[in-house]
Structures are given as C-alpha cells and as structure tokens.
Prior knowledge:
Radius of gyration: 22 Å
Strand order of the largest sheet: 1-2
Number of helices: 16
Amino acid sequence: MVSWIKTILFLLISSITRSSGFLQPTSSSVIIRASTRWTTSSTLFSSTDGGSSSPRQIKTTVASQAALIAGTTIGGGFLALPAATAPGGFLPSAVGLVVVWIYLLGCSLSFANAIFIMKDSNRIDGKQANNTKEEISIFALVRECFGTTAGVVTGLLFILLIKATLVAQLSKAGVLLQSNMFLPNVHRGVWTVLFSFIVAFICLVAKQRHIERINDVMTSSMILSFLTLIALAGRSGWSIDGLKRANYSSLFPSLGSPWVAPIFIQLLLYNEVVPLVSSRLGDETKVRRAILFGSSVPLLMCLVWSCVALGIVPYEPTLVATNGGSSIYDPLSRLSQRVIGKGGSIGKAFLSSVNAMAGSAICTTVFGSIFATTQYLDDVITHSFGGRKDTFWRSLCKHSFAIFPWLQRIILSCNVLCG
C-alpha cells in the first residue's frame, strides 16, 4: 500500500517538476540562454552585495552527497525485494529495475537542471541578495513556473510523500529495536518514540556537515553489511537454475497478480533530496555526478540481491503458501532458516548482517527525509514570513514538524504499522 501511495505522489510531483525546466519564468531571455547548457559554473552561486561578489564555499563532497542519495534510496524494506521479483523471474525484474532507474535518473537530472536555471535567473535579476542561503526547494521552483497555488499543491504532495516514507521507516525501526534489545517487554511503540527523539535531537543540535558524516558512516555500514550478507548467503548453494523463470507480464498491470512497477519505484526513489544535493554542491556537473553515482549503488544492490536470493531459493508456485487467495513468497525467511540452521558463527554473522543493514538503511533514509523536509519548510517560512536567519526556535519548529506529526500517526496505528 505504501508503495502505491509513494508512486502516485511521485508521478504527480515529477510531472510538474520535470516540465519546470522547459518553462520560462520572469526573465525569459536568461532562462533560454541558461537552458541551452547543462554545465553551470560554481561562480553563478555567489552572494552579491553592492556589485561585488565572492564565491560561497560549501564544505561537502560529491561522494558525501552520493552517499546521501544512496542512503535515502535504500530503506528498511529492501531485503524483501525478492518476494516481488520472484513471480516474474530475475531477467524480467532486472529489465524493470533498469527501466525505472533510467526514468528516475532522467527526472532527477531535469529537476536539478530546472533548479540551476532558476538560480541563474535569480542571480541576474538581483534576487539572490535576499536569498543568501541559495536554496531552492520544490515549492520555490513550482511557484516560480506555475504560480503560488501550484506551488502549494505540489508542496502538499511532497509532504505526503515524505510522510509515507517516514511512517514506514520509523515503524520498522521500532520493530527492529524491540527484537534486538534485551527488553522484550517494552512495547515497540516506545522504541519507535525513543528512536525518533534521538534522530530529531541529532538533526537539531548537530551541524549539517556533521550529520552528513554520520550518514556517510551509516551508508558505508549498510553497504558493508550487504556485502557480508551476500557472501554468507552464497555459501548456501547458489544455482543458476533459479534464474531461468521469465514472466514479463509481471511488469504490466494485471488483475490476477500484483504489479511490481510501484515497488521498484519505491525502492529506487530519491528525488526528494535532489534540491538539497543541488544546494549543497552548488555546481551542476557535481550534482549530476552525485546523482549518477548515488543512484547506481541501490540499482546494483537490487540486482545482486535479487540474483542471489532467487538463485538460492527458487520460486516454486506449487509450493507457495496462500493467504486469502494471494500468493506469499518469502525467500528471506527461508534463506535465514537455511543459513542460521547451520549454527555456529555463520548463522550469527548472517543474522547480525541482516540487522545491521536494516538498521543502517532506516537511519540513512530517515536522515535524508528530514533533510529534505526541513529545506522545504525553510523555503515556505521564508516566502510566507520573510527573513533567512536560522534561529534556534525556527530550527526547532522545522525539525519538530518534520518528524513528530508522523510519529503521532505511528503511535495511533501502532498495532497495524508495527505489527
């Protein structure tokens, strides 16, 4: 259900933002000239004061922003991917994943290009002096091209997209903490609240660059845990026979079977952090490299994990359990039973790798979602009330709204979401 919600919201948002790069805001001649090139010099993003300009240095790297994209993309539900790819087979699923990745990549590059065109326009028109932080959110971009009403509507869709992401990830965090802590009697809702407060506190008091470094470590931990998991799972007897199944009809909508495209979009979606990455790097060439490298990592992880899981636990329709007429195929559980059943250090290492990867993926996705939300809220507050000085109380309001309304929803529906 979450995958369908995120897919619908993303398609609505991307259809608007993708067209923004082809429209001409107030300074049409500037936009026409800017849209003819894809590479924008970092000198375009310097603050202007009385005719003098000085480059604005941002202490970040392409690798760090690529890690932000990769970490935001891979969430806690990544390991369940083979359950979606198994009915269609590895090759059809690989084709679907690559097509979705190419589409999302094109949307992200168009989105970033529109942001840099708007920054170029603001610099020439002299608006940049009132926007010293040089951040353009989806609200500002759509408002400039379509008007305030369209900006508000798109912003609401964006908030709903973030809500769907945070509710899913925070719920999984509570389940993961309850199952791995030595306090089994503590309700998972309590762990969810505790985790949310810790993340919100870190985002509130720490500098953005410090949080990015934490995210870099968590993303590295996620990738390392994934490689360990693959190495341990591969010792359970991988066979190419499990990859021979090919049912391309699973890539298209059907009344008789679930459609995998929304699941693929949910797994590979990262467009909400494109404005943040564009703001942090300040150079379109670097942004494109970060998007390309950062989005390639989740694609490779999806392809490798699907290949390994299906090769070890082949999909057998006659043996699949049914629940209310719907097929259930859970290769992760069967693979875990097979590896853990061996006992000893291999079983413990496999279980630790699964938990470490799930926990790291949840943390990186939550960090990226909060980053994207606070940037959006900062732009909305500035447009509505003016001023760019980021006071403590303003930052507190942004971070509180970024996480706690969705936390309330989780608590009210804890038996459903955390069950």
